[in-house]
Amino acid sequence: METLSARQERLLGLIVREYVEVPRKSGVSSKRLVEKYGLDWSSATVRNEMAALTRAGMLCQPYTSAGRIPTEAGYRYFVRRLVEDDSLPPAERRLISHQFHQARTSVDEWGRLAVAVLAHHTRAAALVTALHSPKARCKHLELISTRGRQILMVLVLQGGEVLQQLCSPQEPVSQPELSEIAARLTSRCNGHAADAVERQSESARAGIERILLAQIAASMRRADSFAAGEVYLDGVQNVLAQKEFTDSAPARKALQLLEKRTFLEDFLASALSPHIGGVQVVIAGEGDWSELRECSMVLARYGTPNVATGAVGVFGPTRMAYDRAIGAVRHVANLMTSLVHESYG
């Protein structure tokens, strides 16, 4: 990527922010930049620099005598070189932290809270995937007697996922017996993956414990195949209200693709870094995602590597307030990671 002068970088940053805020068809003019931001340079000097930025591919001119509009290359340079680390105002970070502090004891609330916070503070669409272990490992088992002979098996995995299943033993089992069996199987299976649990079921004597071990292994295998966990979406109306989506069929199609589970899983698996805390920005479908050419996404992973992780992100038009989106996504991802560590170690 070409390196710009300090003056060109400042002008590019101002043009990107100005166009994101007010997307005029005529673009951003040199006169507006000088007057609004009190620049020390003349309009002629600014026009010359804008022309140089256009030749460098960072800006385009919609028509003769018009101002300038950022290109995809301009947005990429802005994101990689000009966005500050803490672009979200301190007051907003404190407010978000307080909201998560109140919800810290409820795993079920994290995803819904995170997606609502991101949609509100970025004015874009937001997505959050629930915690998911790369390989399900057992943490705790509860067995609850229900009507007739049925037993509700509640299996908690190390990443915090809760699996429930009904099973029907041949003989009735009292609740005190079920509690003893649950404690015994929790001790035997704690920290084990599905393969190890299945081997225990094969070696166990015929009876209720053998049946339950087989059920636990089967449930964990299903969890292994469920790649992204539950997906929370919010703020889609924020995106649909943007002119890029009201005027563009490809943009609306891109949004529909992101709402499809299989496409979203493939995209996240490819685009999302395995590292916790880092933020990835995908602008205009760069890479292998031409279907998303009308969209940009800001993504981060949260959780504990090799134990349980999830994804947080926002998506919207290429004309996105990247600095705010990056700051919000990073802050929420860090808060979610802290909650995971606090709750599960």
Can you describe this structure?
The protein is an alpha+beta fold and 345 residues long. 50% of the residues lie in helices and 17% in strands. It has helices at residues 6-21, 30-37, 43-55, 72-82, 90-102, 107-122, 175-189, 194-203, 208-225, 236-240, 243-246, 249-258, 261-271, 322-344; strands at residues 59-60, 69-70, 125-129, 138-145, 151-157, 162-167, 231-234, 279-283, 295-304, 308-317. Helix 5 runs parallel beside helix 14. The longest helix is centred in the last third of the chain and has 23 residues, at 322-344.
Concise account of the structure shown:
The chain has 345 residues and is of the alpha+beta class.
Spell out the blueprint of helices and strands:
Blueprint: H1 6-21, H2 30-37, H3 43-55, E1 59-60, E2 69-70, H4 72-82, H5 90-102, H6 107-122, E3 125-129, E4 138-145, E5 151-157, E6 162-167, H7 175-189, H8 194-203, H9 208-225, E7 231-234, H10 236-240, H11 243-246, H12 249-258, H13 261-271, E8 279-283, E9 295-304, E10 308-317, H14 322-344
Antiparallel strand pairs: 1-2, 3-7, 3-10, 4-5, 5-6, 8-9, 9-10
Helix pairs in contact: 1-3, 1-4, 2-3, 5-6, 5-14, 6-14, 8-9
